[in-house]
Amino acid sequence: MALPNTVRLFEMGARDGLQNEPGEPISTAIKIELINRLSNTGLSNIEATSFVSPRWVPQMADASAVMAGISRQPGVTYSALTPNLKGLEAAIAAGVNEVAVFGAASESFSQKNINCSVAESIERFTPVIELARQHNIRVRGYVSTVLGCPYEGDIQPEKVAHVCDLLYQLGCYEISLGDTIGTGTPLKAKHMLEAVSKKVPVSQLAAHFHDTYGQALANLYAVLEEGIAVIDSSVAGLGGCPYARGASGNVASEDVLYMLNGLGIETGIDLQQMIATGHWISAQLGRRSGSKVALASPCQAVK
Ligand code: HMG
Ligand code: MG
Description:
Layout: E1 8-11, H1 13-17, H2 28-39, E2 45-50, H3 63-69, E3 77-81, H4 85-93, E4 98-104, H5 107-114, H6 118-134, E5 138-144, H7 157-170, E6 174-179, H8 186-196, E7 205-209, H9 216-224, E8 230-233, H10 253-262, H11 271-285, H12 292-296
Parallel strand pairs: 1-2, 1-8, 2-3, 3-4, 4-5, 5-6, 6-7, 7-8
This protein binds 3-hydroxy-3-methylglutaryl-coenzyme A and magnesium ion (MG).
The site of 3-hydroxy-3-methylglutaryl-coenzyme A has 26 residues, from helix 4, helix 5 and strand 5.
């Protein structure tokens, strides 16, 4: 299959990126400023926060305040994770545009991440998706550990396909395929996608690849060749999952944009603005950017 002409980037920096930061809570003001800067890059999808238990993920405890503080840009969808009805109700009150439920292909990861089995998670998501529908809020579905689990190792593609199918049948408009610990390689990614696409159309799938082993861009290229046209990425490559020790951040948005620009694939996003935003948030967090492109591109626009 030919590469797509356009790709939609789903920006993860403010949620997946910041949820795992060790130490002191990142201030609400920094989160708001990050989202506002991301909103000026041309992105159409920004995952802003999570309405999850603050005991499980302390960095996301200020979800409502973040949503209340951002300057919403027309044309940008601001979404949040909502694992249960409590989360969804808070998200609705905060005026999110879109929500996401998150399950896993591996039983052990499901238990560690959301404290229930895969089957129980589907039961839990059913009323969440129903209530969201009543409010005309679209629901995205994540499936974690699609290319490997920190507790179980390899995961059969058929298992991944089964959970994707369940979430799609429940009403998720898009299923994001999470290589949570970044152990995937291109052929593995293709085989997984081949199994999943027998259950869910490729047009309704997204790639959410962490870059622990430096494979994410190669894996993305492999699935672009198979028709994937939605990519989750994180500015400055921020992030990791609190329940997947050692896993590094999402693939950096800057690096994905550089590759897509080079392939002549349209995104509507300004690479220089993204680089500037990545430098800014890295400075706020007192660290080097995880983006190779940003490190190679000195930037004057950081204020
Ligand atoms: P639980 O302990 O089984 O829930 O957690 P519970 O219903 O028994 O409630 C326990 C306490 O949590 C109660 O408080 C509830 O009120 C509170 P208490 O009465 O004890 O004071 N609570 C909540 N508080 C705020 N918001 C809520 C909420 N729900 C319950 N929504 C639960 C179950 C799912 C809540 C918990 O396990 C949890 O919050 N997990 C979140 C895990 C998480 O956020 N992980 C990271 C995101 S997923 C990810 O990064 C992967 C992804 O990027 C894709 C990939 O890379 O693979 C998406
Ligand atoms: Mg993730």
